[in-house]
Specification:
Length: about 325
């Protein structure tokens, strides 16, 4: 392991205190994490919290955040938070890419509190993500969104859910996604070279195995796992939205992300991916002041502006 020196101390500290490698800890912390983070007001992100109804009459929380720039057309963004599918909450937007979008772009970002796998396994999270996508599409005008095509993105498990949702929406005939941002995405329940013996900070082999077991149960690593659950299993990449992302070389998702983007490009999909040497999982969120993190955020924002100009605003 060769972690970037600038973020090494934070990584070692997080590795020492993290309970995430343990399945029982993820199951216990998951429901608590979304309740605790749900108390954050996110005033700096112009956030309003709403409820989105499911087909059965139940509902889930969502954060609606408005960009601070007002010139030009307004883009709608569905952002799916990370946390290994088992943890996290939409309020994590305060430390992830939506913060960059809110501060620099004319957009409306909707981040749903999708069902965590520690509460209910796959496909609950995907169903909630699809419900949120349709809600965003149907309420576009009421939200002040002036572009027909939407952006879907997310970090980590949210990145995996982004890729899964794009495949699912395509197969359902929903042609409303103009750009996907699967940021260092959790795509493959199977073992890869980078996830096999990974001991990096924040997220590693043990944490990854535990999270996939919680999400997929006894079907994990079986041949019949759906690409809607593990998008790396998809074989048809045609017709998927353009994609942008970055990935650290030291994290378990490195190989699966490179393979996924290569398959997108081979299918004729415009896909931009940048590698960051020595970067561990979510380094941009956990050490935002480091030069490697600043460069990653600048890169992603520049690609967002480039791709939305080409595929959303055009």
């Amino acid at each position: 392991m060769s972690v970037n020196r600038e973020i090494a101390f934070e990584g070692l500290l997080l590795k020492a205190i993290s309970p995430l490698p343990y399945e029982k800890a993820q199951r216990f912390i998951g429901p608590l994490s979304t309740k605790a983070m749900g108390l954050l007001p996110l005033k700096s992100l112009n956030c309003k919290k709403i409820k989105i109804e499911r087909g059965d009459g139940s509902a889930f929380r969502a954060c609606v955040m408005r960009g601070k720039k007002t010139e030009g057309k307004t883009i709608g963004v569905l952002w799916l938070h990370g946390g290994g599918y088992s943890l996290g909450a939409p309020e994590m937007a305060i430390m992830s890419f939506p913060r960059q979008l809110i501060n620099n772009c004319n957009c409306v970002v909707v981040s749903p509190d999708y069902t965590l796998s520690s509460v209910k396994p796959y496909p609950a999270a995907l169903n909630d993500a699809f419900t949120a996508l349709l809600w965003l599409k149907e309420n576009r005008k009421a939200l002040g969104i002036t572009c027909e095509k939407l952006v879907v993105g997310g970090e980590s498990a949210g990145g995996g859910l982004t890729a899964a949702l794009c495949i699912f929406a395509r197969d359902k005939g929903e042609d409303c996604i103009g750009l996907q941002i699967p940021l260092y995405p959790m795509l493959d329940d199977r073992v890869t070279e980078s996830s096999k013996h990974n001991t990096a900070p924040v997220w590693n082999t043990k944490a990854n195995k535990s999270a996939w077991r919680i999400y997929l149960g006894d079907s994990v690593m079986n041949n019949g796992v759906s690409p809607y659950a593990a998008p790396a299993r998809e074989t048809d990449f045609g017709g998927l939205p353009p994609a942008i992302s970055f990935i650290g070389t030291e994290e378990p998702f490195y190989d699966e992300t490179l393979a996924f983007f290569e398959k997108l490009r081979n299918a004729g999909v415009d896909a931009a991916l940048k590698e960051y040497k020595g970067g561990y999982h979510a380094f941009d969120m956990l050490a935002p002041y480091a030069s490697i993190s600043k460069d990653a955020n600048r890169y992603l924002l520049a690609q967002y502006l480039k791709f939305t100009e080409k595929y959303i605003l055009d």
